Structure formats: structure tokens, C-alpha cells
């Protein structure tokens, strides 16, 4: 009976073409019913329920933004989105779902790039968007406690008047939520300077799958009292519980920030350049970001930031954006100028030229060239995105070899793959390898996988440096994790979520 009802609902919803949608791995899980929605309406406000199953059903297209992911590759068919406003409401939802074996997908800003934030089938979507209040901020310690649904940009704006910044920053900051950042252990543009969220997150409030509230929302800098459970939820991608509150250490805002884009004649110069920049700028270096020529050209083509002059980009094979954050503008500018002088006056200069920002607007514009690559790629076509960790010295080789591999398969032409490009956080050893195609096609995916994962494994790298596993890479986990690691991960999942209701089909197969 249940199976028949589930099938009928799937047919009623628009089904987009998306080859990645899979069957729910846990056949024992149930779909949401009218009775479930009637139960939720007893304790949720009417505007916290968007469902085709409620007495006032929503139009199916109202569910579109929740069912489809940012890159348009993963598509769910959920009938119901709940948007609780309190931790208690989240607790009641999860308790009901656990008792009735209903699968739940926690959703933040839905900017994830590995299909983790949308259902693989018709799971219930639990959106944190209505939990968006700052709970407290201590300007002395810089410790911020906020609801998980706060948008990263709004938290940045909140702490700015107190001369603090968020320790994490990424291109999706206008939409992604702090809970989503923690759930994906987002890296981003400031990791080089402020470290990962495993260090800056001080405490979490998490609703466990059975509805119990795990209150670890401490604001302590030091707490050595046995197992640090919060670490398990950082990067768990919603498979162990729903994060509802985050306590995070925000660093003091730098008194001066500068940036410069350096145009390099050859990729071979990136590593020696990194060494020189680190040595010369030492404590004020806060970002060292790499963009290859194709990525730069696409960013410019799609209006991300202001293009450098033709003269500045002539003969450049790639670009590096260097940011400094320090305590005194004159001191930092002097250091940057000394660096540029040194680079340009060398017998065999590592760079062709450097464009230094001269105003806050130019600072933003130079950053936009780098931050805007993700958006430019999505405007250009359908992107296969691999965020991998490989030795810095092999960044270019990996991009070039992938391009040649696709060419050898006859897939590098206008009707299939248009661009193969690389960019990323050199300082963190993280390469974003993007393959931009006209459409998502099985033959392209088959050519890319397991090819790319085998390349990563050969370098003893990671198949996911920051975006996570989501639904996209569950099958590829063994390329980066040993059998023992995966066995222990499954046991941990079993301890927290014995009924398997939390984000099924994500992280673990
Ligand atoms: C333009 C652009 C630039 C990006 N740049 C970067 C970058 O530099 N570095 C980087 O790491 N990522 C980057 N990303 C990827 C993405 O923005 C991050 O993964 C981000 O942290 C996701 O946050 P979100 O709120 O959108 O989460 P969602 O996409 O909604 O969810 C992501 C995962 O977290 C889970 N989740 C969300 N909220 C919760 C919660 N409260 N409790 C439990 N689980 C939850 C979801 O179930 C899902 O598995 C970028 C994305 C875009 C579109």
C-alpha cells in the first residue's frame, strides 16, 4: 500500500531530467503522508509548512527551489518542506519522523555543490531558513552564538561594527547559512589565515534523529572533557543530526587589507612564487588563490569583477590573487610593494605583471574575479565539479591530463565538453577542477569517473577537499578512506541514527 502511494506521488510531481537521482537506499523508510502533515500543523505555524499534502496544498513549482540543487544536477521529488522557527520545533519534527521512519534532508542555503542538500527521492526537507537570529555576541572575546539558519553574509555584517570578521568566507556567502557551513566543514577563502571550522567552532546545538537535543553550545575556548562530540557533526553533511545553533570564534578585523593580482607566464612559476610570497609577506599573507587562464577568461566573459587590461594579461598562462591582512596600512603596502619590486626585478621574473588594488572598490573587484569563477562556470554551461586535494606541483598536470583524456575519448568539442579549467586555494592544496559541458551526459560522466578519482588516489590526495561527499561521491569514498575508516563511519552513523532517517544516500552508500 505504501509503495503504491509513494509511486503515485512521484508521478504527480514534475520530474526533471537528472541522471543523478537515485532510489532511496533504505527501503524501510516511509514517504510523508497527509496524516504526517496534519500532525506537523499542530505545532508549526501555517507559513512554516509548504506541502502538496496539506489541506491548503502548495503549487508543485513552489517546491522547485528546495528540490533542485545550485548547479542543476541533482533533483529530488519531495512533497513537503518544513521551516521550523525554534529548536523545540525541530525536535518535535525529528521525533515524529524517527518514530514513523520518515527520511529527512536538512537544508541550509542550498548552495552545496555535491547534491547533499536535496532529496534523492521524496524525503521531507527540513529548511533552517526561519532560524535566523543571533543569540549573543561578546565583543571582548569575539565569540558569536547564532541560530544555524543565519546567512553567512548577515553574520559578517553583524560582527563588522564590532571590528570582527567571520573566520569563514566564500563566494556563496549571500545565500549559504552558518549551519550549512558547519555541516559541510566549508573551507573557503580565509582558511589559510584562520584555519578550519574544526578549530573555530567552539560549540554546537544539535537535534538528534530521535528528537533529543544535544546542547554543546559552549563558549569555552578550552574544554578537555573527553570525546569532543561536536567535531563529528562538523562535515557530517546532515547525516547525524540537525545543527540548530553554532558558537564560533570570530577574529578581530584586520586594520588593513590589500590585494594584488599577479599574471604569470607559466604555471611552473606558481610554486616558487608561493614560496617567495610566503617568505616576503610572512604574517600578513591571508590568501593565495590560483586561477588558470580559462577560468580567468570565463570570469571576465560573465562580468565577474573588472577585467585587467589587455597589456596586463598578455602572455599570461595563469593568475594568482594575493591578499594581505595586517595591522598597519603603510607597513603592509610597503611590504607588498617590496614584493612586487623583487618579483619584477629578478633576472628571470616569476611574473609578467602585478595589478595592485588602489581603493576599496578595486579590492572588491579583484576578489570578484576569483570568487566569481564558480558563478561564471554555472552561467557557461553544466559543470562537473571536482574539488580535490593533490600536491600543488601537480595542479596543472591534473587539469591538462583531464583535458587530454576527454579529447582522446572524442568528447572535447562544442556539443560535449567546452572547457576544462582549474582554480582554487593554492595555500590549502585544494584544486577546483571544473569540466564545463553543454549538458550533463552519461558519456561525459563515464569518461570522468573513475578516471579523476584514480588520479587523486595515485597522488594519495582527497576526492573532496571542501565540498563534501553528498550524493555525488558516495561510491568514490573508498578512493580516499580506508575500509576500516568507512566501517567506523558506518558504526558512528548507526549509533546516532539507527533508523537511517538522516539524509539517506549521502556520504555513506
Ligand atoms: C558560488 C559558490 C561558491 C562556493 N565556494 C565555496 C568555497 O570556497 N568553499 C567551500 O567549502 N564551499 C564552497 N561552496 C559550496 C557551498 O557554498 C558550501 O558547501 C556551504 O557551506 C553550504 O552551505 P548551505 O547553507 O548552502 O548548505 P546546503 O547546501 O543547504 O547543505 C549542504 C549540506 O549540509 C547539510 N546541512 C545544511 N544545513 C544543515 C544543518 N543546519 N544541520 C545539519 N545539516 C545541514 C545538508 O543536508 C547538506 O548535506 C560554494 C558554493 C557556491 C554556489
UniProtKB/TrEMBL annotation:
Similarity comment: family membership: Belongs to the FAD-binding oxidoreductase/transferase type 4 family.
Which Gene3D superfamilies does the UniProt record give?
3.30.465.10, 3.30.70.2190, 3.30.70.2740, Uridine Diphospho-n-acetylenolpyruvylglucosamine Reductase, domain 2 (3.30.43.10), Vanillyl-alcohol Oxidase, Chain A, domain 4 (1.10.45.10)
Q: Which Pfam families match?
A: FAD-oxidase_C, FAD_binding_4
Q: What is this protein called?
A: FAD-binding domain-containing protein
Q: Which InterPro entries match?
A: FAD-bd_oxidored_4_C, FAD-bd_PCMH, FAD-bd_PCMH-like_sf, FAD-bd_PCMH_sub1, FAD-bd_PCMH_sub2, FAD-linked_Oxase-like_C, FAD-oxidored/transferase_4, Oxid_FAD_bind_N
Q: Which cofactor does it need?
A: FAD
Taking every annotated instance into account, which residue ranges of this chain make up the domain FAD-binding PCMH-type?
74-253
Q: Might you report a single GO cellular component term?
A: mitochondrion
One function term, GO molecular function aspect: D-lactate dehydrogenase (cytochrome) activity
Keywords noted in UniProt:
FAD, Flavoprotein, Oxidoreductase
Question: Domain of life here?
Answer: Eukaryota
Catalysed reactions, as listed in the record: (R)-lactate + 2 Fe(III)-[cytochrome c] = 2 Fe(II)-[cytochrome c] + pyruvate + 2 H(+)
UniProt keyword DNA repair, yes or no: no
Q: Per the record's keyword annotation, is Cell inner membrane included, yes or no? A: no
